[in-house]
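Teaching note: in complex prediction, the entire set of molecules is handled at once rather than each chain in isolation. The prompt given to students was simply: 'Predict the structure of this complex.' The entities are:
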Amino acid sequence: MELNANSPIPLYIQLKELLVRQIRRGELHPHDRLPSERELSEQYGISRMTVRQALQLLVKEGVLYTAAGKGTYVSEVLFEQDHALTGFSEQMQRANLRASSRVLEATVIPAAPYVAGKLEVPPHSGVILLKRLRLANEKPIAIETAYLSQNLCPDLLKHDFSQVSLYAVLREEYGLVPTSALQVVEAALANVEEARLLELHPPAAVLRMERVTRNVQDVVLEYVESVYRGDRYKFYAHLRA
Amino acid sequence: MELNANSPIPLYIQLKELLVRQIRRGELHPHDRLPSERELSEQYGISRMTVRQALQLLVKEGVLYTAAGKGTYVSEVLFEQDHALTGFSEQMQRANLRASSRVLEATVIPAAPYVAGKLEVPPHSGVILLKRLRLANEKPIAIETAYLSQNLCPDLLKHDFSQVSLYAVLREEYGLVPTSALQVVEAALANVEEARLLELHPPAAVLRMERVTRNVQDVVLEYVESVYRGDRYKFYAHLRA
DNA sequence: GGTCAAGTCTGGTCTATACCACTATAGACT
DNA sequence: AGTCTATAGTGGTATAGACCAGACTTGACC
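The expected output is the structure of the full assembly:
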């Protein structure tokens, strides 16, 4: 509720997180107006410039948007450029949706040539396959099949990935942080299995995505094939020259 | 060289562009240290907070990086190749396909509120609408509707855009170079008009794309709505953290 | 010569204040 | 009733000053 001026955490970061929590908890809804900068400044006993520092960060992340002369509002936009490299769980969390998963398959297999090429590992070397149905607020959104090299993250499958975020485990347990990705997106009609899992009535459009994720050292972390429901998912990308 | 306090362009944007120009011209090299914030502040006669505003923008864009207690430095990765920001013609050329277009509509209209918002221009101001059917090797691939502010490129429509690349004209005639874009992609079923133009037999999947393109100064160059044939087009994107 | 301490410079954080252009509204005027 | 006009409120920009922790330089001291 309150900000702590003695904390080593800067005030503008504290305020930023406080606002995010309020949005997550549903105390602030999309298109709700925030208190004005001057009000927030008085309310939390900090200067307006510090308030602005917090708000501008959130605007840059797409959580808020501003209208000069009117006020600052909570965005509806789900996915912003900065979150492009987060996993499904993080994306859903940001969008204020409950992310969950149903694990369809979780095994270790020898790398088929195609997958080995994507992962840049020798053919037939150990590859972890994790196939999950992704849900947001209990409604199916995507089928995701991730391939990871067993060398990079042995024992990965000891986790229960129906609850846990893959990216969180990679980061916290193996120190693997994605920093770039090459992605291919195309539209297609859902096949029978996809329609069944995603609870679609054919004909229905889906978004097929392939993604190769790398860390700072340019090592391939994962190769993912995803199929998203066309009506429930939009893909945002920020491109730079 | 100097900053103009009377300009409608904010000082921090002016400084930001000035620094970018210096880097582009090679007056500042990767890993060079910039003058300290206090020096820049004195040098250009603006306050340190304004200098910081410019620097922080560039840090966020990856042009600069900072080291607390040491200084601010030029990043190495400024001019990374990314083909994502080229127009349709350039993309096709790279894929070794003959690009052509059929102009479906080319007019000037008053900006509807939605389009005005995307272009960040006043409602009802003059907007150029250019709707084209895009072909690769004479086969239809996409329907593209571009909106541009008439202020930025008056007389744009004197060109015959069935032959000429829009991006080429913008660059060569108006000096407008896209450097960033925010893009939204989703899958959908083709409607009747789309199916007819794209020569599809329903039901068929299409890729819908919206894109807002900006130049270095963050001015919106164009807002484009595109519909691609799902079976003939894949969308590539390179993402960076 | 090597070590440590003081001092200086850096970016990071924060305050307080000011003016601008724009938006909305309440009230006066027609 | 409809229309204009102050006016108050908003975010956007900009200034000037302050303190902090961390990185460096310098010089006194052993």
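Point out the following to students. Residues 11-24 of chain B form the longest helix (14 residues). Residues 83 and 91 of chain B are 8 Å apart (CA to CA).
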